[in-house]
Amino acid sequence: MQKIALILQKARVFYVCLFIIFTVSCKKQQSTKVVSETPLETVTKYYKSNLNLSLRHLDSLSVTNNFKEAEKQYKLARKYFKICEPILAFVDAENYKALNQPNILKIEEEDATDIKILNPFGFQVLEETLYDENYNQETLINVCKKTKNRLNLVFNNTFLNFKDYHVLWLIRDEIARIALTGITGFDSPVLEQSLKEAIFSYNAIAEILTIYGNRFSSKTLIDNWRLEIEKTIKDLDSDFESFDRYSFIKYHTHKQLELLNDTKKDWQLEFPLKLAFNHNITSLFSNNTFNISYFSSEQFDSLPKERIKLGNQLFREKALSKNNTVSCATCHKKDKYFTDGLPISKGVTRNSPTLLYSALQKSFFYDNRAGSLEGQIVAVVENKNEFHSDLKHMEQVVSKNPEYVNQFKKVYKDSVTENHIRNAIATYIRSLTPFNSKFDNNINGKINSLTDAEKRGFNLFTGKAKCATCHFPPTFNGTVPVLYKESEMELIGVPKNKDTIHAELDSDTGRFMVFNTEEKKHFFKTPTVRNIAKTAPYMHNGVYTTLKEVIDFYNRGGGIGLGIELEHQTLPADKLNLNAKEMDDLIAFMESLTDTI
């Protein structure tokens, strides 16, 4: 019996040892699984964790009756939203846009039979509702629920599946987004928390780079990233009005674009296609910044010189009009920076805008009725008050000219067609993006001649004066960075004349004339302010003859500030409270945007 008991005891010891070995082995396997987690899996967890935290604080916001607690929960929800921004804005652009839309009525006009009028929601709407002088908790809760539902939809339908080059794309987009809209106060209209929120997003960039740390073959490069982001965050720790945005872009944004190019080389990556920005950009203010074909219906690496030359000839060709008296250059004179200098152009009802940088838009005419430069040319040719012609006549005229016929064979490898004629003219217009102004050359480090007044003016333009929340750098027009899919329209309340005591709204109804949408009355496209010192008079009706008058209009709060009743004015009606020196500084900056052409 003792022998049997001894055998059983040994057996028990054996099985206990086996169990321990098995358990330790399993733990090691589990540990191995954790270690082998891919960077994408780690990023997904990080992203969804912050989405969840934003949702939790929105939950708390929707049930509190205490204003201070509501304020706290809103700021926390917004914080985690901003941490998610680099990824969310890249992988789900439409939902990001919806969650971060301004507090203005949204009108979607597909055609005359499909017009949708939507009430806004999202974080900007929450901010304005929370701090409204007529604060209404029921309204706040309603907006909060809509925002939470949309963010919850994002959370439940997020499956990140991108390549390594997507990581660099989303980082580049966020760096540009912060520089072009983030630090301007574009999406923090009341609290002006843009700088603090930019810190949240830069921390997210740093976290993403850390997660992908093993992709770096150069330790020096990742150390450079860490040091640069630390310096960036330190400089962002400033107040909104005194922040030096000029230096931030020149010494941080552009530095980070260089680091991105170094990282692309280090990771041995190639990008499969171009988006709005060209690959390998090191500046946001260069004639190499934009992929012009992104704004066109055709794809090309560069604009063919022979096509530009042909387009320039056709641009000045009066024979394209019915009575041989009008060309494109009639209203867009090069010596007047492609305007005509008149309040209202001859034969039409609006001021002639500059064609410089017009290629960097998604919509054309003051009322956005054309979707391409080629489409705009059709409207000009067929307008009885302009060319008073048609495409067939235009094609016949050019086909009868032997010189043109030979050029078209050389440039297009084809005969003359109205499509090619329009494309040639459009190509010439697309070439008019010089980016060689005094401001461009200074912010790119080519020269060092920008005055203190010009720098202060830029910082005002992109800060206190809020100009850059509609005129987005670097194009300084209304095409929204960083996706550049939409050219915005605004209702600012342009008056009929300069009378500031008994101001009357100009009678031109703008976008309303396209689809008769009542809520779009008096909406006009936001034009560029580049070369504005050379393109007076100003506004769609040429009402103002000096930049000082223009700034005074905005300083008063637009049409509403002049006493005009406007239900849907998109320009904030609050006075800017700019003093005389600040107005002079703004003018100095805008004058520095003059190109050599």
UniProtKB/TrEMBL annotation:
Subcellular location: Cell envelope
Pfam families: CCP_MauG (PF03150)
Location of the Cytochrome c domain: 306-433, 452-594
Predominant cellular place of this UniProt entry's protein: other
Keywords for the protein's UniProt record, in alphabetical order: Heme, Iron, Metal-binding, Oxidoreductase, Signal
Entry GO MF terms: cytochrome-c peroxidase activity; electron transfer activity; heme binding; metal ion binding
Domain of life: Bacteria
GO CC, any one term: cell envelope
Protein name from the UniProt record: Methylamine utilization protein
